[in-house]
Design goal:
- There is one protein chain.
- The protein is α+β, with helices and mostly antiparallel strands.
- It has one domain: Aminopeptidase, CATH 3.40.630.
- It is 30% helix and 14% strand.
- The chain is built from 2 helices and 3 strands.
- A 3-stranded mixed sheet has the order 1-2-3, covered by helices on one side.
- The longest helix is centred in the middle third of the chain and has 15 residues.
- The model has no long low-confidence stretch (mean pLDDT 84).
């Protein structure tokens, strides 16, 4: 979980190791993180790629909606700085 104190936001993210996928553990732990954020006065946020249907499914399952689309830029580390 990442906190942005200035904006009072916290980014939620979960990964299930392959053997544990489909058991609902990602949904459960993410929902608990969201509750903790709200209890602390933080705005939970969920970011994922549009192609990540599993992540979108978990986010929607625990109450996230109204997606905002934005462009992400990545640094090509193979070119050097």
């Amino acid at each position: 979980m990442y906190h942005d104190i200035l904006w009072r936001a916290s980014e939620i993210g979960a990964r299930d190791p392959g053997d544990f996928r489909g058991l609902g553990l990602g949904s459960l732990t993410s929902a608990l993180c969201v509750r903790d954020c709200v209890d602390k006065g933080l705005r939970p946020e969920w970011h994922c790629r549009e192609s990540n249907s599993a992540s979108i499914g978990v986010a929607e399952k625990i109450g996230f909606s109204d997606p905002v689309h934005y462009k992400s830029l990545f640094l090509n580390l193979t070119k050097g700085l």
